[in-house]
Amino acid sequence: MSSSVEKKIKQLREQIIKHDYNYYVLTQPVISDEDYDKLVKELEKLESENPDLITPDSPTQRVGKDLTKEFNPVKHKIPMLSLANTYDEQDLFDFDRRVKESLSDSEQVEYVVELKIDGASVSINYVDGILRTAATRGDGIIGEEITNNIKTIRSLPLTIDLAKEKKYKLKNFEVRGEVYMRIADFEGLNKQRENKGEKLFANPRNSTAGTLKLQDPKIVSERKLQVFLYSLISLDEEFQSQEENLKLLSKLGFTVNPHYKVCKSIDEVLMVCNKFEAIRDTLEYEIDGAVIKVNLIRQQKILGSIAKSPRWAVAYKFKAKQAFTKLNDITWQVGRTGAITPVAELEPIKLAGSTISRATLHNFDEIQRKDIRVGDTVVLEKGGDVIPKVVSVVLSERPKRSSQTIPPDKCPVCGSKIFKPENEVAFYCENPECSAQIKGRIIHFASRGAMDIEGLGDALVDLFVDKGFIKHFSDIYKLKNRRAELIKIERLGEKSIDNLLQAIEKSKSQPFSKVLFALGIRYVGSGAAQKITAYFNSIDDIIAATEDDISAIYEIGPSISKSIKQFFSDKKNIKLIEELRNSGLNFISEKKEIIQSALTDKTFVLTGALSTMSREEAGARIIKLGGKVSASVSKNTDYVVAGEKAGSKLTKAQSLGVKILDETTFLKLLEEIK
Asked: Is residue 492 one of the residues assigned to a domain?
């Protein structure tokens, strides 16, 4: 093979990559589409004649020929946390106050304000300058690999010229961003689907998320996905600020949204948010707010995060778009806890990119407060641009003959009595065997964030519960005994049932934290489940624990601990756990590397702001050395680590005579043990 052919292929690739950058990133093409196509065809011809010279990062390899049959799980190196939402000026001021209270008085805080793109979050890994893998956010801890589909995004570089960056060594790094679809491309896609008689997508965000999970990269490529990157992560490097992060991404050839601003104060942040909201309808893509981040990464680390979201960033949600429509009926929906929720059945109307025909009415108190009646013209909006809700009634258009809404006197599904607990606004069905409750619990159990049983969706759960195949979680793992019966069901068949049974079997490998979350214990969300299973070694330890034992876990409060004890005091639930255990589910925590040391079994309480690390990092180091971290001070507390601005916990520790460590002493203690 002549070196001239190899050289020509290299030149063509470099030319095409440069033109892709000019066209898709800079939006400043320098050659015609015809000339660009000629370059691509020439490269394709040379590569087909010399297949040994084809490399994964070649522009011709963006759209793969093989179907993605399985989206494998990918554990994120650093969790992809969701953002807490703020909705008004006071929320932002409160965020600013919390940030400053957690930092020392000498710290100056800057914020970076960015557009909140309404799309799907992704994480993309580059090794030696080549795109290796890409994953969805998933539950924040584990996502799904979508590498083949991400590579179809033309603005995303397959290779990075690392020579462009001298300050940092970027041998292995990750970029995070938001994949989206332009409004015009979304409308074009829906037009095509309408012409083919296919179901229309609700909005650009849903179509984007759905497209990323398609098996055929060719179809993904045709849908013209775009991406904005906003974060650069390397476990080997310490970056200085979010502003530097954005500039570095641009320097490396990534598409960064140009609408961002560094602000010196929260007042300036609010002003920028208002400016962003004003340009909302002029953009070619959907946004639903702004993201505010503490600029210095050193400060971000001090602030740390809670179970679900970082303390150093929030989303500022723009005012919801509104529409007027007629309320045709009010139906009552029974959830997995038995709570009965009113739902508005509406005259279909388009709002914020989707057609709305149903909306939550929250609870009966809300109906009474707003005096919502069937036949009313109502004002509809999307809360946070996601969940549609009725905000008010147009009284001037109310029919002359209208009746006040009254709550149901019995469960609309099973006909059982309903009750309303004191200090609660919801009505409840008192029958735990109500089919709606069973369906809700099973759907939650099988959901992606829990046991992740692919294929066991709402429709199949409805069918299996109605046929009596499933009454409890444990019945899911007995479906394999009904295989012959299941494959005879119309529109299911042998292949779909075998796929479902394989997914059920695969779910047995889910970690203990997912299993605990799947049980649907009230107040135990995915974040709380992770903290609890990190603290206790097994389900037996949790069952044996007292409320105080559970409340001792950092950021696990009394409502969660009480709910857990109530759940496990029910003999039916204990029996259910045994059945699930016998089916092969995991009720043991992952083995943690714990060093036996002077801190073994010692209980620490962390309070105030630490300057050298976040409280989460401090807690992790204590646990690794065999200690425990509690959220509250008691006579059983061994040490209180008091940072700056420590409050009531420090006072209580002093009154109880608990040993108090300042940050310097605490670090010295850790160093001595190390």
From this structure: yes
> Which tokens hold the place of 397?
């258009």
Tell me which amino acid residue 378 is. V
Q: Among 214-228, 506-520, 578-592, which range has the highest average pLDDT? A: 506-520
Edge to edge, the sheet with strand 313-317 lists 84-86, 313-317, 287-294, 111-117, 260-263
Measured over the CA atoms of residue 591, residue 597, residue 603 and residue 608, the dihedral's sign is negative
Distance of CA 575 to the CA centre of its chain: 32
* 470 touches 478 (CB < 8 A): no
Q: Are 336 and 441 in contact (CB under 8 A)?
A: yes
116, 151, 317, 382: which one is catalytic?
116
> For residue 214, is it within any domain?
yes
Q: Which residue has 């320098």 as its token pair? A: 30
Please name the residue that has the structure tokens 């690739």.
Answer: 13
- Strand, coil or helix: 187: helix
Domain count for the chain: 6
User: Which stretches of 240-338 are assigned E, i.e. beta strand?
Assistant: 260-263, 287-294, 313-317, 322-334
Q: What is the DSSP string of 287-309?
A: EEEEEEEESBHHHHHHH-B-SSS
Six-digit token string for 376: 């009313």
The CATH number assigned to the domain holding 356 equals 2.40.50.140
Is 150 found in the same domain as 103?
yes
What tokens appear for 253 in the block?
């050839």
Model confidence at 295: pLDDT above 60 = yes
The residue assigned the tokens 């004649």 is 49
Confidence band (pLDDT; 50, 70, 90) for 172? very high
Distance CA 447, CA 289 (A): 28
pLDDT at residue 593 greater than cutoff 70 = no
Domain coverage including residue 12: 3-61
Q: What is the pLDDT of residues 356-405, one digit of tens each?
A: 899 989 899 999 999 999 999 999 987 554 678 898 999 999 998 899 99
pLDDT (tens digit, 9 = 90+) per residue, 134-148? 999 988 888 899 999
Q: Known catalytic residue: 471?
A: no
Residue 308 domain flag: yes
Q: How many residues does the chain have?
A: 674
Final residue before a domain boundary, out of 527, 554, 583: 583
In a domain, 143, yes or no: yes
